[in-house]
Design a protein that fits this description.
- This protein has 330 residues and is α/β, with parallel strands linked by helices.
- The chain has a single domain, classed as Aldolase class I (TIM Barrel, Alpha-Beta Barrel), CATH 3.20.20.
- Helix content is 27%, strand content 15%.
- It is built from 10 helices and 12 strands.
- It has a 12-stranded mixed beta sheet.
- Helix 1 packs across helix 9.
- The structure holds S-adenosylmethionine and iron/sulfur cluster.
Length: 330
């Protein structure tokens, strides 16, 4: 599919649940979000039908996400079936890593194109204060799981959200995991959605200064591992890369290739926009595959030119305060 601005839309972020076993301060309120009842979520059959239709329209890569996808029963089986859909070339996942070890071998056998693991800190106390959940083994156990994934041949990337006065002193240590352990460490600028508006961001430019002071120059990398919007940099002596997703301070909307499907069946052309298509209602009303394909095409035609974050140093809450990233799928 090609949108009104000439962008090729071939990437779907598929959220299969809005539930999560953590409560990250930038993503979900401490009390959680109001869970969608199971009967208002897309079933796996409905999800696969929509993915088959979108693959027919040109979607080639799917990132399965949430909430935390691994809390939904049958998630790995869904991923296996998704990988078998004609036209879908790559399936990858984004997870907090907490439940990952028990599913790793099965995921490796699919095979997955990659796993993104969110890790904002290497310190147990900070992990507790960011995620508002604790377990004696975190984050050490998650680091061990990353190593197991590497040994199983699954490419692993780390996602880290830099936060002033919370993990800013650890950012170089987290970046250093790209030296040997993971394919890339990607730093995502804090997006002012929902509860994130209360937090102090670190911009990509500030982060670069912090990293270069200790690691030396970040040199633009020739390769781009993955389908996302990150700009990648090489560091001398590192096998892996450093990625920066400066969604707010720089933006990358001109090359945006994605759609987002929520667990409740809402298809969104942009994370910050209120434009959406209620595919679940269409399914329930008995829409045919060609009706659904036509509606998706029409939505793609309305994909906005760019997001509407209002500048991270200005009014950080913007008009996104009532949203939750866990529901949108990150
Ligand atoms: N539970 C999974 C996880 O944590 O990786 C997948 C869902 S989570 C919503 C997807 C990604 O969105 C995570 O890497 C998380 O760090 C990121 N994220 C959530 N809220 C964010 C925010 N306000 N700004 C920037 N990134 C955010
Ligand atoms: Fe859960 Fe991921 Fe959101 Fe953290 S970032 S609360 S792990 S969905």
């Amino acid at each position: 599919m090609i949108d009104a601005f000439g962008r090729v839309i071939d990437y779907l972020r598929l959220s299969i649940t809005d539930r999560c076993n953590l409560r990250c301060v930038y993503c979900m309120a401490e009390e959680g979000v109001e869970w969608k009842p199971h009967n208002s979520m897309l079933s796996f059959e409905e999800t696969l039908r929509l993915c088959r239709i979108m693959a027919g329209l040109g979607i080639r890569k799917v990132k399965v996400t949430g909430g935390e996808l691994l809390v939904r029963k049958g998630a790995v089986d869904l991923i296996r079936r998704l990988k078998a859909v004609t036209g879908i070339e790559q399936v990858s996942i984004t997870t907090n890593g907490v439940l990952l070890d028990r599913y790793l071998e099965e995921l490796a056998s699919i095979p997955l194109a990659g796993i993104n693991i969110s890790l904002d800190t290497l310190n147990a106390e900070t992990f507790h204060s960011i995620t508002r959940r604790e377990h004696g083994d975190w984050p050490g156990a998650i680091l061990k799981t990353m190593e197991q994934a590497r040994l199983l041949g699954i490419p692993v990337k780390i996602n880290c959200v830099p936060l002033k006065n919370i993990n800013q002193d650890e950012l170089c240590d987290i970046a250093a995991l790209a030296e040997k352990t993971v394919k890339a460490v990607r730093f995502i600028e804090l997006m002012p959605i929902g509860c994130a508006g209360e937090l102090e961001p670190i911009s990509g430019m500030e982060l670069r200064l912090i990293l270069e002071r200790r690691l030396g120059a970040l040199r633009p990398a020739g390769e781009k591992p993955g389908n996302g919007p990150a700009a990648y940099y090489a560091v001398s002596g590192f096998a892996g890369l450093i990625g920066m997703i400066n969604a707010v301070s720089e933006g990358f909307c001109e090359s945006c290739n994605r759609l987002r499907l929520s667990s409740g069946g809402l298809l969104q052309p942009c994370l910050s926009s209120d434009i959406s298509l209620d595919l679940r209602s269409l399914l329930l009303s008995g829409a045919s595959d060609s009706d659904l394909a036509g509606a998706v095409r029409e939505l793609v035609g309305r994909k906005p030119a760019s997001h509407s974050f209002s500048g991270i140093y200005g009014n950080r809450r913007g008009n996104h305060a009532g949203k939750a990233m866990s529901r949108i799928g990150g």
